[in-house]
Amino acid sequence: MSKLHSSQRQHFQFSNIVGERTFGFVDLAELMAKATPARSGDRLAGVAAESAEERVIAQMTLADIPLSLFLEQALVPYEEDEITRLILDDHDKTAFSLISHLTVGGFRDWLLSDLATSDVLTQIRPGVTPEMAAAVSKIMRNQDLILVAKKCHVKTAFRNTIGLPGHLSTRLQPNHPTDDLTGIAASMLDGLLYANGDAVIGINPATDNVQQATRLIKMMDEVIQHYEIPTQSCVLTHVTNTIECIEQGAPVDLVFQSIGGTQATNDSFGFNLANLAEAQDAALSLNRGTVGNNVMYFETGQGSALSANANHGLDQQTCEARAYAVARKFNPLLVNTVVGFIGPEYLYDGKEITRAGLEDHFCGKLLGLPMGCDVCYTNHAEADQNDMDNLLTLLGVAGCTFVMGIPGSDDIMLNYQTTSFHDALYARKVLGLKPSPEFDLWLAKMEIFKNNEQFTLNHQLPDAFHKSLNRMIGGRS
């Protein structure tokens, strides 16, 4: 950016003089965007910094911004956006008072200090807005994001307890390109035998309608009830379909919805906050939880707002953080960022995917969400499974709530690469992370683990599954 003359400076709300050059930023949205670590989605949107130098200057400028400014200047107009209204109307001034004197840079230093204990971080959650979380993440190194996220403890429960320190849960994702029940059952058995599935057994239906969702819900419920598995099921259909499934008597555990950080994004997804409230009430009325009543499951992902032409000129990571305000409103059991799923248009390579995954996890945990991550990439991205191994390990260190478990790392229905059943077992072994307590006891009871403390699998097929497997392969021994 060229040097600005004095006549030009009046058009910029923020500026920073470095040597003989003055860098100017029109408003808080532009400053946030240009302070964001490099990624292809922001370049595509035309909001990224023009150089590494401008990015660093933007980060320096952002560090001096008072946190209170985010309560005074809405990045998306209050009158136009129900997410903005949610963020500002639900803001807890008492919780914020503990950090209200801080700048963005001061907030970073405080978060990294020993003063910011797990208990104190829990105390300030209602006072932190998504924009504050996004802003501080932009000036943090990867290790900073990991350290603070590790201190953020978020516990939820339905049929088991998710998010306890020292634990890592998994979503067993037995997708099938034709929703074939035998194929899905085979994947479920495979995943359970690798100790996967304590977060949820969740299916993305190939055919998305009420009839098919009900069929899959009933099938999973039968398996869970037959084997007395302390877990929950979910068909990842549209929220309005799930409401109809409940009205028709389907045994729904969790309600799913993909969410975005602006009202226009969610309009493109076909729902609003009132729909989510209706669905939550419907699921709670079933009273199917045994140890808790967190009944919602949300998925997010950087780039969704831009894909819907609904980003309001914001960078994709700030839009992503705003989606967490939606999630937080409904006390979910699970939230995960599907970090590399949209494609290289938004996160170009393994480095950008890794950074985004750590940012999303940090922001979600700081805001009080049970944050997991679908550690994934599409085949046209400049990434490979080694990149995913790195991110999986970093997230495990950071206290990630859950990851995906899919046969062979390859989702044959959604056509993307993610983490496999044995990848989750690797993370548990190398980092000493247990499944949820109730699920851990079930694994021992079913003789799936030979040694629960060392995560050693039983090399023999557990007796309880012999009959099921024989039925699945047509009665052959």
Automatic annotation (TrEMBL):
It is found in: Bacterial microcompartment. Its cofactor is adenosylcob(III)alamin. It catalyses: ethanolamine = acetaldehyde + NH4(+). InterPro entries: Aldolase_TIM, EutB, EutB_dom_2_sf, EutB_N_sf. Gene3D superfamilies: Aldolase class I, ethanolamine ammonia-lyase heavy chain domain like, lyase. Substrate binds at residues 171-173, 204, 299, 374. Adenosylcob(III)alamin binds at residues 205, 257, 307, 413. Binds between the large and small subunits. It holds the Pfam family EutB. Signal peptide: none annotated. Its main location: other. Its EC number is 4.3.1.7. Keywords: Bacterial microcompartment, Cobalamin, Cobalt, Lyase. Pathway: Amine and polyamine degradation; ethanolamine degradation. Belongs to the EutB family. PANTHER family: ETHANOLAMINE AMMONIA-LYASE HEAVY CHAIN (PTHR39329), ETHANOLAMINE AMMONIA-LYASE LARGE SUBUNIT (PTHR39329:SF1). The basic unit is a heterodimer which dimerizes to form tetramers. The heterotetramers trimerize; 6 large subunits form a core ring with 6 small subunits projecting outwards. Catalyzes the deamination of various vicinal amino-alcohols to oxo compounds. Allows this organism to utilize ethanolamine as the sole source of nitrogen and carbon in the presence of vitamin B12. This is Ethanolamine ammonia-lyase large subunit. It comes from Marinomonas foliarum. The gene is eutB.
